[in-house]
Design a protein that fits this description.
Length: 305
């Protein structure tokens, strides 16, 4: 679902200063990170006015399909101090965010690669047995709003889903065989496009130590105090995993999910089961609104797929 949440800080977070500065232009103030004016309103680049020039600032694009863990990755990067957008519908979002996931990244990675040559790309895999029913559940909620003329979703979202899932060309877009074909075609195209490149990584976030692998790939440190203990603020009380009682007895506050393993750091598990709104519910000052306006209002890039 598109994120139209208020981007103002609604909770206190201890940020990882070194990691935020490594990816973005952020200055520390006390225990929290406040984006500088230059970071929030960067000097207009040629990319904002035309698609011939590229942006030098490194970006991270999460190009896995929906229901492969895009929200979990986005939240993990927020906890590293990065500015993150889950979906991006304007040029300005790409200017403000350090990392962007989901729409339109999974469909537009070739075009984004041309616009942002310094970017790194993260593909997310998921066991097909788990992905197909999860995607069927999501499409059951989304399809009425993806209809070309009457659907209420943003045109960029409709375009991405039409391009990747051919929802306007098949009788039943949620058909199992069709979804498997869409997943495999997307995966094969991504792996072929990025073959042999060092700015690309493929991850299954359910694998032990997968968060550590991502942080190493991005050149980020793993000493952020929130890592391995990311609070599942977006989950209901019944979904929050319990932790050892001594943490509560020590006055640590609400239960936290311990996402560590002998193999390294693991991702927070969000949007589990039929839950699809975790990003909207998750409060963090570094979230970038997917509809952010810029020098050209809410204009998107001029490229076509």
């Amino acid at each position: 679902m598109p994120d139209n949440a208020n981007n103002s800080p609604t909770s206190t977070h201890v940020q990882c200063t070194a990691n935020a500065q490594r990816i973005g232009n952020v200055q520390p103030t006390g225990n929290s990170q406040i984006a500088t004016p230059d970071a929030m309103h960067p000097v207009p680049s040629n990319t904002l006015g035309g698609e011939q020039a590229s942006v030098e600032k490194q970006k991270v694009f999460i190009i896995g399909l929906p229901r492969t863990g895009t929200t979990s990755v986005s939240v993990a990067l927020l906890e590293q101090g990065l500015k993150v957008a889950h979906m991006a519908f304007t040029k300005q979002v790409f200017m403000l965010a350090d990392a962007i996931s989901d729409v339109p990244c999974f469909s537009d990675y070739r075009q984004l690669d041309g616009l942002f040559p310094q970017a790194k790309f993260v593909y997310l895999e998921r066991d097909m047995v788990k992905w197909v029913p999860s995607m069927q559940m999501l499409l059951g909620k989304m399809l009425p709003h993806l209809e070309a003329k009457t659907g209420r979703f943003h045109p960029i979202m409709k375009r991405s889903f039409r391009h990747t899932f051919a929802i306007d060309k098949v009788v039943d877009p949620a058909d199992e065989v069709h979804l498997i074909d869409c997943y495999q075609r997307h995966q094969n195209e991504v792996l072929a496009y990025f073959h042999g490149r060092e700015d690309f990584i493929s991850l299954d976030i359910s694998h032990a130590g997968s968060l550590s692998r991502l942080l190493q790939f991005l050149g980020l440190t793993t000493d952020c105090p929130t890592l391995g203990q990311v609070t599942d603020r977006a989950l209901s009380a019944s979904q929050v995993k319990s932790v050892p009682n001594q943490r509560l007895q020590e006055g640590k506050g609400q239960p936290q999910s311990v996402n560590t393993s002998e193999h390294g750091l693991d991702f927070p598990k969000l949007n589990a089961g039929t839950h699809v709104a975790a990003w909207h519910e998750y409060k963090h000052p570094n979230k970038v609104n997917s509809n952010s306006a810029g020098p050209q209002s809410r204009k998107f890039f001029d490229y076509t797929l």
